[in-house]
């Protein structure tokens, strides 16, 4: 008896009456049903706002990042359960790895980025603050804060796990509760994932809800503090973004849509080059991976006219070796499409693409899926077409067959290749295979205007390349035009998409209080205890030390040059130095840095454990022989990463603002120093 899937709404699982049957991609047998039970979307939205938002706001960025890491570890420990279910989607183990471990890997990545880059508060300062008046009493800056709304994430069928998690991770960090809506065809895998996430006990109440089936009037209930993200077809994206309520309330809508991505073989590459084989391998992998059901798959293979036959021959040879069928059968390298409906859709679109073009490889070339009971499965043969006039044939730039289908398009000259690439009207990704840096320098800026990501592939990059079709958490995923015009991932940028940016004006002291960071010009606190003698909990933003003075002599410059090996003429050649803008010998910038450390460091053992970096270093003015310098050290920012060392001692990160001035109180050097500081407990 096929199981009826359930939605997770307002903290409970809903769904007992069977509705739409969901079929195995491998055998077409009914394996699940969606549920017919009506979802109260008013309850779902209210629950997210009244329970989810407060629960998430009780945590700060750092704590939510730690929770993401714990969740990733939990899901990874149960990954084999997900692999077993993923098999029914027609995915091979390698396909499922991208979805399952790619999804948990994205959680790990955002947990790591959050712990490194976000504060232990719910206010993210986008500094530095800037003076807005002549007297230093009025300044301005920008902050990012949680919106106080919810995020609706609508996903496609091709990546039922990664699709949810890559959206969930940054919105969770931004304290936005989520309502996930997967495509029905593979929603059984998303449902299994959400059950695990709920069972982990790691998610605050209301942080995640799941909709199986239709979104009903959900979008009509959203407000200006909410966000909608969508992955799927360009047509569906266009329909959803015109929802009257979304428009009326200016609800942010981010779309990542399927697009006609391309790979360009540059004219400098010949069949004897390693790059030629890399190109063919990359295209074949993108055609057959996930049975071509990737929004990033290569749909257009743009090749020099004199290379068309060679590329076509090599691709046919590769495709002929691809065994298609049940992924549990040894040797099978490509599985099925997600459903028979998808199979029919791809068939219709291939017929459109074939008009006026040549079919180089298809089901007629010995296609026979292997495995027991696969005769009714949603399998589709790898299909390669050839278009010899891409400037006139509109179909190759308009029609996407969302399966293992791609078209070779010939070109004359790199300018025509780039023009053909742009005919896709906006794509998620393009690949340029070249061995010539000058070709890359010319082509990439032009390709970047119509593509969200550009991969330049040569034999050097191939050693570590993650490939054309692999969105990475650290890099932007999304593209202009047909690709939806949105952005996902891209590191902490994605978190910022779910936060509200506001400009703040006031005195430096007030800005420091609001941002949780010392702002230059703000009031400082000085006491008898050196800031380096205070434990993490005892330090306050604005705790400061103004050091004693040191006069720089010629011996300092000579000694520093001897120790460092830096005998640059500006420091040692009096005659040459007179002809410079400074008119005299000056001290090494790094001597000034070292001398400042000597002025403010407290040398005895104490809570400060290590200095692990400098940020924003600037040498503002020269320090000449005879100048007298001093430093002001101020606690600028504290980040509690909720970690302990191997002895169980807690630590936090403290950023110190350092200003080095001369005898005229002129700023000569400025930087932030980062330290690990021990906790008392």
Automatic annotation (TrEMBL):
The keyword Oxidoreductase applies. Keywords: Oxidoreductase. Residues 541-652 form the MaoC-like domain. Residues 23-456 form the Aldehyde dehydrogenase domain. It comes from the Bacteria. SUPFAM superfamilies: ALDH-like, Thioesterase/thiol ester dehydrase-isomerase. One of its GO terms (molecular function) is oxidoreductase activity, acting on the aldehyde or oxo group of donors, NAD or NADP as acceptor. CDD domains: ALDH_MaoC-N. InterPro entries: Ald_DH/histidinol_DH, Ald_DH_C, Ald_DH_N, Aldehyde_DH_dom, HotDog_dom_sf, MaoC-like_dom, PaaN-DH. This is Phenylacetic acid degradation bifunctional protein PaaZ. It comes from Duganella rivi. The gene is paaZ.
